[in-house]
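Entry for the shared binder. Reason: the reviewer on the internal report wants the predicted structure included alongside the sequence.
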Amino acid sequence: MGTRSLLLSSVAGFALFTAASALAQTASPESPPAQLPAITVEGQQVEERADGPVEGYRATRSATGTKTDTPLKDVPQTINVVPRQVIEDRQTTRLSDALLTVPGVQANGTNGGRGQNFTLRGFQTQTVATDGIMQSPALNFTPVTRDLANIERVEVLKGPSSVLYGRTEPGGLINLVTKKPTDTFTGSATLQGGSYDFYRGEGTVSGPLDAAATLTARMTAAVQTEGSFRYDNDDTRNFFAPVVNWAPRDDTRFTLGADHTEQDSQFDRGLVAVGNRVLLLKDRYYSEDWARYDARVDNVTAKGEHDLNDWLTLRQVVNYTVGDTYRLVANPGTVNTAGTTLSRTALRQTEDFDSWDLQSDAVMKFQTGSIGHTVVTGYEYVNGDRTVRQINYSLASISLYNPVYGAEPGTITSRNNVYTRMYINSLYAQDQIKLNDQWELVLGLRYDKLDQTTVTQNVATHVDDQNWGPKAGVVYKPVPRLSLYANYSTSFSPQTTAILGGGTPDPEKGVQYETGARYELIPDRLSVGAAIYQITKENVATASGVTNFSVLTGEQRSRGFETDLTGEILPGWSVIAGWGYTDAEVTSDRTTPVGNRLANVPNFAGGLWSVYQFQSGQMKGLGLGAGVTYVGSRNGDLANTYSVDGYYRFDASVFYDLNDRIRLSLSGRNLTDQDYVEQTVNSRVENIPGAPMTVIAGVTAKF
């Protein structure tokens, strides 16, 4: 389907919504429509909605697990939610820091400083969704570091989720829920400064554009620059995100949003392993001053909803993403036998990509006798194109202990051009079945048809595959405060890597079995959750040791246990915490020994963050926060040739609300100044060290 056809389909879809809005009059004014509640004013005491603000640290609803506004206690799958308040209390600017208290989640590399990757329940994922929309299927990593300025909440859906989202990794899905326009005027501005020349400014303005508040808008922007404890150059990122809502009638809603990111960063693969350990010289930089990465990414999303009557809602979503990147970098090679120098090559690469995502849903709410149903049926069309042009050069080696800079790219050693085109057509259906006040079922099925072409050096390979992906879940509530659940879910993920010997691998597939519980320790204030699971992943492609090529490693399995705690212990005393055990290993393979641990997966890891803010007296408005993160020892690569030690990280913050509008903040991270490896990336020459002790001060004004 070409761009013209896609545009015509988009226009036609929204035209149908407009026509339905004008003609359909069957909805009863007294009947509750099949839609989310109206967006409310920020800071007001209102009932929570799935895509809106969370009061404090404890979320109660989500749409990530079902595509409908559903109480978390009614979702038969683990979902962890990090609200905006946690991000602000910690002065967090990195997604990886926002997820420190989510069990089973581990930061998993930055692709040389380009973006952020994660390990979820033992399996690497390089894709993050925004408002339920996945990135281009032709991309195998996130091309920019996602800014958090317009993020209302971060939600982590654990385990496979392909029935609703199609192409996902079996470990789970990170979904970023963005801030929405408000019915009354509101806004805020924040200035921050800190260690290693960190400076940031962000702001948001929201409110109605007409007297009746049928047209509302929000603009969010952020500018950030920061240095590094490893090199002298600065990284910069500019971000802005406008969004407009139009509700011409009570039964019709339209949203048009966009975001733009510009990023210029130093390229850095991190530290290298010598023998069976990482050479933990965190201030040693093994690249060059000219090694830079530059990227621009634009997203535009249009959404329309119309309630045909009191039980049927139609929903159309159209997303277009386009971007380009450029990098001239020094790539690490291998360490010599003496363990003193690192070989290198230089790479010049340009990349262009774009994608369309069209989702057409029907949401139905009805009864069959005494049994209630919430049914989502839909069709999704996704295409993605990506063109990569590479030139490799020779480059001098560098000393590991006393690096000397100034080497320049030498002679051209190779050229490589890769074009990837991917089309996916999908049909899906899900039924949330309420049998009674105690028992609920969720049943789903998805069909995906994949058409993928990869052209490498003018040699084309083609994958034509299809997949049926079911899921099933059950929720049992013996008492109102306790929810028990179990699920079976599947995943389907196309691969863009090239296989050693030629060709493109078939999609990866995963299966999860999970059972868990949620319990309100303090009704409406403090909740605890726990889950055990097993995930099996088949047809896995990993690095072959030959540049730009991979091999299939067969089957991998992850088993584990997780528990979390969120909410308010006493008035003013909030907590968010998580702890997990993960046993992730190779279970079948032709090259990697069975029993090898998966890379960057600690057996035990967890995090705790707690804040107390005085509610009265002379110290009213003063807030004190403290947290600890523990990550156990991990194998650095799939071959288990080296490992990294576990570590503790202590963070703290103090803030003071001068009034309802002004907050002063001071935060410290890694207060014990511990040396540690934060992230490994299944590579002996790519290990990201944790930052030394850092301090960030900030001031926020609300209006």
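Summary line for the report: The helical segments are 3-23, 84-90, 95-98, 162-165.
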